[in-house]
Design goal:
Blueprint: E1 3-7, H1 11-23, E2 27-31, H2 34-43, E3 48-52, H3 60-71, E4 76-80, H4 85-93, E5 98-101, H5 106-140, H6 147-160, E6 166-169, H7 176-185, E7 194-198, H8 207-212, E8 213-214, E9 226-227, H9 229-232, E10 237-241, H10 248-260, E11 262-263, E12 272-273, E13 277-282, H11 286-291, H12 297-303, E14 306-309, H13 319-335, E15 340-341, H14 343-351, H15 357-371, E16 376-377, H16 381-386, H17 395-398, H18 416-430, H19 435-442, H20 446-455
Parallel strand pairs: 1-2, 1-3, 3-4, 4-5, 6-13, 6-14, 7-10, 10-13, 15-16
Antiparallel strand pairs: 8-9, 11-12
Helix pairs in contact: 2-3, 5-7, 6-7, 13-14, 13-15, 18-19, 19-20
This protein binds adenosine-5'-triphosphate (ATP) and magnesium ion.
Length: about 475
């Protein structure tokens, strides 16, 4: 059963329609003008609107148009006087669900409201379903079952639907961006723009224009008007990454937007407004930055309404096996293979300190994956070392068994490029990652080997 809004300036008509529809079990609201109808839609949940086309002041079509802008796609049924078929057709073109001609046939009225109600509830369910799916997906992307990660996820669930500014803190590579993504995906703004800006990646003198836009001719090179991220993110979420790197003069301008919601493009003086939810991230300790005088205290308080701290990986080692397996699965999907990660390798990874956190683990796993000659992913000391200053692998586990892995299996039908790639990677792994030795065995130049490895995405520095 639907919530129906009846808009008609004739009291007798309103009462008749309301009575019939209430008998069918619908809840009915009434309004005597377009303006009053819009006000009711703003205040209550309306599934279906039944509206007379001819109204004093604003007519039915204009009311519908405004309502569509404000409240989204609610099905409208317009009632037209006889002989105004053309207007009725125009109404359908403008997005009306259906129309009824006067004198209104009661049976048709009931049937039309009934089917509009079904459409409204299908729309609603779809929306809820889509949101729920988005929900799970965004949270599932954050792999981990440690107490710390569960807390982070609970926090995201709790704050996402508010409009509160969120500050995500954590070392580099801990997954701060995934957290920011999930905050947006779980929020009511999820269908709206999600705009990201990495403060550290923008040259200092361009940052203001990136944030707030510029007018044409505002400075040399500003050949046309450009909207800033705040304008683009209107009604949605703006993710300001590396906020700790923001120069002080930009901090002042950001503070102003947060205080009164308005800003101006560079070279412009017209104040603009944007409805933006802000999520910020930093790998610095922002409180310390404040104490050191590098970050404004007033801005810090504005940004730090909700604080989510993502702990380093070494403090939640229990997540390492899950993460490693998740990355391995992803690599398998990408390479259409079914490589395995043995418990020995997993336990070895678990013992490392991972100063580069999850990103380092991910990169290391990718290297091990491409360097492993067989189905089993094996530890390659070079790969671990190349990924960062993590501890070295134990030599015993480090070397692939020389005999069984001396051969590689190649399925018929593989393209030549792929055969070459597998042979090169397998040979390199067989040589314990020693590139000069591998190049000799392959009888190619060392430079050629480097070039090929680079093309395969294998990091080649740190011989
Ligand atoms: N819990 C996790 N589950 C799955 N993947 C993760 C997780 N945490 C991080 N990652 C992956 O690690 C990489 C780094 O994550 P992200 O970019 O979110 O880190 P960050 O904290 O923003 O790092 P930085 O401070 O360097 O910007 C990404 O590829 C991300 O997908
Ligand atoms: Mg990041």
């Amino acid at each position: 059963m639907a919530n129906v809004l009846v808009i008609d300036d004739n009291q007798g008509n309103r009462e008749t329609y309301a009575e019939v529809l209430e008998d069918d079990g619908h809840s009915v609201l009434t309004a005597a003008s377009g303006e009053a109808g819009l006000a009711k839609m703003g205040a209550a949940l309306v599934d279906v609107v039944l509206c007379d086309l001819k109204l004093p002041n604003m007519d039915g079509l204009a009311t519908m148009e405004l309502a569509h802008e404000r409240s989204g796609p609610v099905p409208w049924i317009l009632i037209t006087g006889h002989g105004s078929e053309e207007i009725a057709v125009a109404a359908i073109k403008q997005g009306a669900f259906n129309y009824l001609t006067k004198p209104v046939d009661i049976a048709r009225l009931r049937a039309t409201v009934e089917s509009a109600g079904r459409l409204a509830s299908a729309n609603r369910e779809n929306k809820a379903l889509r949101r729920e799916l988005g929900y799970e997906e965004a949270l599932d992307r954050i792999v981990g079952t440690s107490q710390a990660i569960r807390q982070v996820k609970a926090m995201i669930r709790q704050v996402a639907s508010t409009d509160a500014t969120v500050l995500v803190e954590g070392e580099s590579g801990t997954g701060k961006e995934l957290v920011a993504d999930a905050v947006h995906a779980l929020s009511n703004r999820s269908g709206r723009p999600y705009v990201k800006l990495n403060t550290a990646a923008i040259p200092r003198d361009l940052l203001e224009s990136e944030l707030f836009g510029h007018e044409r001719g505002a400075f040399t090179g500003a050949v046309q008007l450009k909207k800033g991220k705040f304008e683009v993110a209107d009604t949605g979420t703006l993710f300001l990454d590396e906020i700790g790197e923001m120069p002080l003069d930009n901090q002042v301008k950001l503070l102003r937007v947060l205080q009164d919601g308005s800003f101006a493009r560079v070279g412009g003086n017209q104040p603009l407004k944007a409805d933006v939810r802000l999520v910020c991230a930093t790998n610095r300790n922002l409180k310390e930055e404040v104490l050191a005088g590098r970050f404004r205290m007033d801005l810090y308080f504005r940004l730090n309404v909700v604080n989510i701290v993502v702990p380093p990986l070494r403090e939640r080692r229990e997540d390492i096996p899950l993460l490693a397996r998740a990355f391995c699965e992803r690599l398998n999907r990408r390479h259409q293979q079914d490589r395995e990660l043995s418990e020995t390798v997993v336990q070895h990874l678990r013992r490392q300190d991972w100063p580069g956190n999850v990103r380092e683990l991910e990169n290391t796993l990718e290297k091990l994956y491409v360097l492993s000659p067989g189905r089993q992913i094996v530890l390659d000391p070079n790969a671990i070392e190349a990924a960062g200053p993590a501890q070295r692998a134990e030599p015993a586990a480090a070397r692939a068994p020389a005999t069984a892995e001396d051969a590689i299996r190649l399925l018929l039908g593989l393209p030549m490029d792929e055969v070459e790639k597998r042979l090169i990677l397998a040979t390199l792994a067989h040589c314990g990652g020693n590139k000069s030795k591998a190049a000799r065995q392959l009888q190619i130049g060392l430079k050629t080997l480097y070039r090929k490895l680079e093309a395969y995405g294998v990091k080649v520095d740190g011989e």
